[in-house]
Amino acid sequence: MVQEQKTLLAAADKLKEYKIKNTPQRQVILSYLMTSHDHPSIEMIFNYVRGNGFSVSLATVYNTLQLLIDNNLIIEIAADSGGHMRYDYFEVPHYHVICVNCNKIVDVFDDKYKKNEEHARLETGFQVFNSQYEVYGLCPECQKKLSEEA
Amino acid sequence: MVQEQKTLLAAADKLKEYKIKNTPQRQVILSYLMTSHDHPSIEMIFNYVRGNGFSVSLATVYNTLQLLIDNNLIIEIAADSGGHMRYDYFEVPHYHVICVNCNKIVDVFDDKYKKNEEHARLETGFQVFNSQYEVYGLCPECQKKLSEEA
DNA sequence: TACTATTCGAGAATGATTATCAATTGCGGT
DNA sequence: ACCGCAATTGATAATCATTCTCGAATAGTA
Lengths: 150, 150
Description:
- The structure is a homodimer of 150-residue chains.
- With 150 residues, chain A is α+β, with helices and mostly antiparallel strands.
- Chain A folds into 2 domains: 1-91, Winged helix-like DNA-binding domain superfamily/Winged helix DNA-binding domain (Arc Repressor Mutant, subunit A), CATH 1.10.10; 93-150, Dna Ligase, domain 1, CATH 3.30.1490.190.
- Chain A is built from 6 helices and 5 strands.
- The first copy, chain A, has helices at residues 3-17, 24-35, 42-51, 58-70, 116-124, 140-149, and strands at residues 74-77, 86-89, 95-99, 105-108, 127-138.
- In chain A, strands 4-3-5 form a 3-stranded mixed β-sheet.
- In chain A, α2 packs across α3 (42-51) and α2 crosses α4.
- The longest helix of chain A has 15 residues, at 3-17.
- The A-B interface holds A 76, 78, 95, 97, 99-100, 106, 108, 110, 112-113, 116-117, 119-121, 123-140, 143 and B 76, 78, 95, 97, 99-100, 106, 108, 110, 112-113, 116-117, 119-121, 123-140, 143.
- β5 (127-138) of chain A pairs antiparallel with β5 of chain B, so a sheet runs across the interface.
- The structure holds a DNA duplex (30 and 30 nucleotides).
- Chains A, B: Zn(2+) binds at residues 99, 102, 139, 142.
- Chains A, B: One of its GO terms (molecular function) is transcription cis-regulatory region binding.
């Protein structure tokens, strides 16, 4: 069985696990998010689905992503200063380091920041579902580029 | 001297400190963010400025906020599921606990989460400017409301 | 006070997101 | 395996937050 089919099945399993009705569009979108590590934008997801021979509309991409967010399967990242949201599968907790110059997003797989969730619960009385941490700065490439310009 | 004038002067000082040209609009917007703890939206800021007898346009509010963000004086929070950004003065590090039901934002003044910035720097080589942490959950009021409905 | 670069502001333009609704489809029950 | 129906899809229109434009007004400086 080829890799593509495997990840489609893995996505189907995940949908069943979360009691989300399975459709081809949802399967492809989720499998893309589960395997890609490029924090895609809406547009990238839309193109990916069509590029793989499935029909899809923008409305469906938006609806599906909202559904996955509501189920805490993915998170939304406000990285792009151009107002483009980016999406990321979030089974394994990690945080994002974002370049304010080129908008690159780097994953750091360390979940220490999650420890604050318990503190937040005690402090506020909230029932906590999730949390996310973002670091903003200049990536090594942009540091070099900008120092050369100066 | 009345409180309002004091905070306007404080805002003017802050602008000078950051070498940002002082204008009435910027002074009022910054002073509002410095003193209010309600994480206002664009619309709230716009109404506040006009309501205090200053002329302002939406474009100016957007421009000013972007300027303050670029100077790390304030941060942008993607709290409102309706796509409304919220803004917060960020001199004292703290994180936000956000209710996914009513969009309420609660401040928690604990900067432990900031410790991860050093880790991010070592891990990625980024030059780190800032970081923010958000916790998502249900506030006590919405917990009660939703359990009564069920 | 005069100069100049910067900022302001009203409205237009843009573009991402949401709404609409008829046609289609997944899926539990028979 | 088939039915029936609730849920989903998708093309398009509608909405609305944000950005752009550019002439007028203004802040800071000498």
